[in-house]
Amino acid sequence: MRILQLNLERGWRGGERQVLLTLRELRRAGHEAALLARRGGELAWRALAEGHTVYECSGAAGLCAALLRHGRRFDILHAQTANTLSWLALLKAWLRRPVVFTRRTAFEKGGRSAAKTVWKWRQADALVAISQAAAAQPRRLGLATTIIPSAVEATPANPVHCHEFAARLNLRGRRVLATAAALTREKDPCTLVRAVHELGKQRDDFVFVHLGAEGDATEPARQLVAELGLQERYLFAGFEAAVEDLYALMDVFVLSSRAEALGTSVLDAFLRRVPVVATNAGGLKESLADGRGLCCEVGDHQALARAMARLLDDAALRASIIDRAYDYVVREHDPARMAERYIEAYKSVLKART
């Protein structure tokens, strides 16, 4: 099969990593997979470095031009983001190719925005969601939705990166709790700051490291850290290109999201044997089920603090959580298995059109 993946995001986050993993695994399985991505973006750069065919464009006009020029060469057009689905839906009658869409969010929209979203979803020949939480809204609307979980891959940690990072933040001799999340409102960093403050009332043997790009909650989070006097305890480390290396430094991984379709940073922690504390937002509840982590109510900073303390102090609990989480992630979130599921979905779409 010939499959064109579409993702026009500017940065490098979980969705972009999934696109690159999909391209890689489709090629390994013997299929011709190409990418339509933003010119000069991190995803395009990484895909080109791996030898994938990449059509680069700038903005909506460039995307449409590239689709009109190249789209009919492919058997499947796979929108990996909502905005690329919009343009595929508008051009579908001309392109005359089946469209697959992967939903990576669990947000629910209302009003006129919801009507437009439903129209777009109905133009997809196959609708995929990365978790039960992400599938909930389209299923309530009567749309058949297949669950294909995101994947994570095991890569060796770069000891030089770890050493330099630990030295830069003076982490030696302290237990490290950390998160990898953009400073955005849906990630709720202020609740996380309050949880760290609460934990600090009980002990002083730890430091908290916040890895992630700035966003719309950057200033409130930084102000709260200053107000609570946590400048030496709560460290903003910013975006790290190879953040996967740094899990080797962590004693506990924490995620305080208010909305989360799946949370691949949690899967990274599972794979690297770091125990997880997270809220029960969206797909996080699914990931942490069956003793794979400690789950807390959204916005409950005291519960997060208690859960962090338990994982720092209870060695038996840590070991149990780590083993359960690792077994689960290598079974359910393997890149090759993810690709197999997509290939099955592609074949079903093509068969339905014959």
From TrEMBL:
Protein name: Glycosyl transferase
Glycosyltransferase subfamily 4-like N-terminal domain mapped to chain residues: 13-153
InterPro entries per record: Glyco_trans_1, Glyco_trans_4-like_N
Keyword Lyase recorded: no
Glycosyl transferase family domain mapped to chain residues: 173-326
Species this chain originates from: Candidimonas nitroreducens
Record keywords, A-Z: Transferase
Gene Ontology MF terms in the entry: glycosyltransferase activity
